[in-house]
Specification:
2 copies of one chain form a homodimer. Helices cover 25% and strands 27% of the residues of chain A. By secondary structure, the first copy, chain A, is α+β, with helices and mostly antiparallel strands. The radius of gyration of chain A is 19 Å and the shape is globular. A 6-stranded mixed beta sheet of chain A has the order 1-12-2-8-9-13. In chain A, strands 4-5-6 form a 3-stranded antiparallel beta sheet, with helices on one face. In chain A, strands 3-7 form a two-stranded antiparallel ribbon. Chain A has helices at 22-32, 47-53, 67-76, 80-87, 134-149, 203-215, and strands at 3-10, 42-46, 57-59, 90-97, 100-105, 110-112, 126-128, 154-162, 169-179, 182-184, 200-202, 224-228, 234-235. Chain A contains 6 helices and 13 strands. In chain A, helix 1 crosses helix 5 (134-149) and helix 3 crosses helix 4 (80-87). Chain A has 2 domains: 30-56 and 130-240, CofE-like (60s Ribosomal Protein L30, Chain: A, 2-Layer Sandwich); 57-127, CofE-like fold. The longest helix of chain A has 16 residues, at 134-149. The interface between A and B is large, with 89 and 89 residues. Strand 1 of chain A pairs antiparallel with strand 1 (3-10) of chain B. Chains A, B: InterPro entries: F420-0_g-glutamyl_ligase, F420-0_gamma-glut_ligase-dom. Chains A, B: It is an enzyme of class 6 (ligase). Chains A, B: Residues 13-229 form the Coenzyme F420:L-glutamate ligase-like domain. Chains A, B: Keywords: GTP-binding, Ligase, Magnesium, Manganese, Metal-binding, Nucleotide-binding, Potassium.
Chain lengths: 255, 255
């Protein structure tokens, strides 16, 4: 009688390198681990393996910082070559202090270092950037999987975010394909039939957060998980539905 | 071989009223639904039933707005009696516009309307406030459950939050007991043995988000869910570990 949601973390995806076929790696891991992908499943993929497969990995040794990168390196007390890499994916520098470099990146997210990150890539000077277009990457993975298994599935790519007001990070969606990102309660009734005026849940972010619990961040090496038994509706929109401009942001001026 | 997380939503918890014994209601629902609570389970409870059990439900008809509430009612174009109710749980008004009233509430959260909410309470003028001390409420529920079942469990109380930068809401923790709230990777190595300098995942928020997927917001009436197969460590801290002061907030000035 109880309603049960299951999240399965795949544990045998090999270390991914440039050019790897992620859908094929997922299907092979599912076979090895006796996991079957079924209609309604949501496949959640961490950004890092997508970035690696797409060749978005850079060695600071090959980067010459610009004047702006040198200045921001000073302001943030960070390696100006890293700053140069961050700027290559940056639309707008929001805040630069020794505590961190916050930017709006080319993908539209307000985040630290535009998403540049050296965890789980080999070498002290090697950093990955986010996929250039995570919605498109999600679509390619979804279509690739569907070519092999022909099921109704959705794909979400996730990354780890620091956020205002609260300590520590959570995983959020950076791209998605096939799923409508919200569960919109705004025209439905509550237990007593009253209309819910505000409730509009960003389920893709909630899915991203829960899968991080399975995926982990360090040596767990579980870069893909599968969410089963969740009800969702098809959608053909992308991250532009999620990301607010400063003028739309209710919290503008609140921080 | 795959690592599996299971989230079970209890579907037979009755409508909760003031004075109800939530641990007893959970245990009875588990019996009816053949769900057993085991060592390591995390019990996630939506704020609304805790507020109702604690009598934190108010009728605007009984409220006389103060001068400040009348002014803020004008500024926000909201019922000044609601504003008066919000002010009773408010430490600091952060922003007041027709788009919303953002405050720091007595529980320390920056949020809309201090958490006052009229969904899933009966009557057009009836609103609930958050539990006065959600950590303490979590502890009472945990101890109450443990008196009956004597297992190693944690309790998290959740609420729905609008957040900066992104459209729509997600559920986050507002109180917890028995669990250390972070999975701290800051002194561990990644796949390549490099130290992770920043990663400190707020797992209680990630857990809160997932259970919303099961719990839902409107007529689903699943106010409690149970997370199984997650590894976590015991902790004796509370929400003060999560909530940042403005001076600690990396995003200060970024919005």
């Amino acid at each position: 009688m109880a309603k049960t949601l299951t999240i399965i973390g795949l544990q045998t995806i090999p270390i991914v390198k440039e050019g790897d076929d992620i859908p094929a790696l997922i299907i092979e891991a599912c076979k090895r681990e006796s996991v079957s992908i079924e209609d309604g499943d949501i496949i959640v993929v961490t950004q890092k393996i997508v970035s690696k497969a797409e060749g978005r990995v850079y060695d600071l040794e090959n980067i010459v910082p610009s004047k702006k990168a040198l200045e921001l390196g000073e302001a943030t007390q960070r390696d100006p070559r890293l700053i140069e890499l961050v700027l290559s994916d940056t639309v707008e520098v929001v805040k630069a202090t020794p505590e961190g470099l916050i930017v709006r990146n080319i993908q539209g997210n307000i985040c630290l270092n535009a998403g540049a990150d050296r965890s789980n890539v080999p070498g002290e000077t090697i950093y990955s950037l986010l996929p250039v277009n995570p919605d498109e990457s999600s679509k390619i993975i979804r279509k690739g999987l569907q070519k092999i298994i022909n099921k109704r599935i959705a794909v979400i790519i996730t990354d780890t975010y620091s956020r205002p007001f609260r300590r520590g990070q959570v995983d959020l969606a950076i791209g998605f394909s096939g799923i409508f990102p919200f569960r919109d309660y705004r025209h439905t009734g509550d237990l007593y039939g009253k209309e819910l005026r505000v409730k509009n849940t960003t389920i893709i972010d909630e899915i991203a957060s829960v899968t991080e619990l399975v995926i982990g961040q360090s040596t767990e090496a579980i870069p893909v998980s599968i969410v089963k038994n969740l009800t969702w509706v098809d959608g053909d929109v992308g991250m532009s539905e999620i990301l607010l401009s400063q003028d739309e942001d209710l919290f503008k001026g609140a921080l």
